[in-house]
Amino acid sequence: MTLHDHAERLRALPFRTILSVRAATKPLSAAGWNVDLSRHYLDTDANAALFAFADDMRLKTAIDQLFDGEMVNPSEGRAALHWALRAKEPEHETVRDVRQSVVDAETLAQEIAWSSRKGATGERFKAVVHIGIGGSDFGPRLIADAFEDRRREDIELRYCANLDPLDLDLALKGLDPAQTLIVGVSKSFGTEETLYNLSRARDWVKASIPKGWSKHFALITANRDRALDWLDGADGLILNLPETIGGRFSIWSAGSLACSIALQSDVMEDFRAGAEAMDQHVATADIADNLAIRLALLDYWNATILGFGARALLAYSRRLRLLPAYLQQLEMESNGKSVRPDGRPVSGPTAPLLWGGEGTIGQHSYHQWLHQSPSMVPAEFILAPGETSDSDGVTGLTAHALAQAEVLANGRSLADVQADEPDLPLEIAAQKVHAGGRPSTILHAPRLNPYRLGSLIALFEHRTYLAGKLWGLNSFDQWGVERGKTMAGRLKPALRGERQASDAITAKLIAAIRS
Ligand SMILES: O=P(O)(O)OC[C@H]1O[C@H](O)[C@H](O)[C@@H](O)[C@@H]1O
Hints:
By secondary structure, the protein is α/β, with parallel strands linked by helices. About 50% of the residues lie in helices and about 10% in strands. The protein has three domains: about 5-70 and about 270-470, Rossmann fold (3-Layer(aba) Sandwich), CATH 3.40.50.10490; about 90-265, Glucose-6-phosphate isomerase like protein, domain 1 (Rossmann fold), CATH 3.40.50; about 480-515, no CATH class. It has 20 helices and eleven strands. The longest helix has 22 residues, at about 450-470. The structure holds 6-O-phosphono-alpha-D-glucopyranose. The site of 6-O-phosphono-alpha-D-glucopyranose has 14 residues, from loops. One of its GO terms (molecular function) is carbohydrate derivative binding.
């Protein structure tokens, strides 16, 4: 039987029938997380077929290749060594070099945080402004937001990513350049948004500190030469972001310097330790127990075999409110592709649209659509309350998440509605029906601390890489991002009125915008 045969067999059954057996499914666990896959269109036979598929697709070999530092990014001819950034006792020299880039950043962060390194006028740094975009922005922003209550009180932390000049205006508002460190993160040191914001920040610092302005910049990049050009002979701090670290896998790198400075010193250490624990699990666990393999198989099953084109990520944790945005880049930039490294097209859907938000807030918004729209989207609940939360709130949050998953799966029939409310007119009763049949995953941890955030992100990284393998994709490049950038460059002269845009509709829009 093929995977499609299993899917057809299961889709012919009422979801409740499938779930009555699946209630006995054993949750999986590793590095502080439990994962429950009970509520899916799966059964023992379908799972066995998926495990055989994982074997055929050599997922265990793919894991070995990653951790052996083999070239897993063929278009750029590189290994993917993000895991080395969190390897506590690296054995191999290349891994040690990658790890050293983190050690250097941590040393610098402590010097800044404890004022042994100060600004050009001798004042201590009281504010850090992180400038970067995409993979050079989402990660540190996520960590800082998650552990806002673990911020050092004497250091202000701000972020700027957008080309919209307001973003930097707001990030610098009220700050004193003499007490501000600008952390510029760009792997390529060629990204338009980041260079634009960095150059405006440089003007801002230079206006008050013409001599020694460069002491107010820490640049983190794989392209040291470009950073040196940018400094134009001035003395500046440049930290290494190794070439083997993809931007969207760089949360563990020196690129998170701003967090290392502005958060309590154990946060980043615990965050990386959690990731390393997940690495150990993924590197050693068998297919059936391996969280990353199981989730990658689920992604393939839901997107490619069952044809669900989206997945909703519902984070029942204030600390994880930026997680959907973070994972959009990780998963959709990695696997939102349709051509294999050898140039052949893939045979079906690949990474689904990932969207979502923070529970319970989303319940007062798009959950209506999840429950009653004709579209069916698998949901992924992440249940992980805060470290020091009030227990009533935690109980409420947990109850809501569990209730949502239950209703999505079981629905509410017309007969149930009428039994509960016999006097309702039929047209109202019909509108209260929930079709059900909506699958969901529950990932839960007793408390969300830096260790568990680290292990969760590492899990999603491995899941993304392995799902990419199942789809036959290179998860480490992003050709689709480039075209829009090139086109924007071509349109700037048209917006300045220097020439006509070649596309008629764009030309019409430019004329309207300029009028
Ligand atoms: O770190 P940078 O080189 O500035 O790149 C920043 C971001 O921009 C690119 O367009 C890519 O789409 C992202 O993967 C990358 O993280």
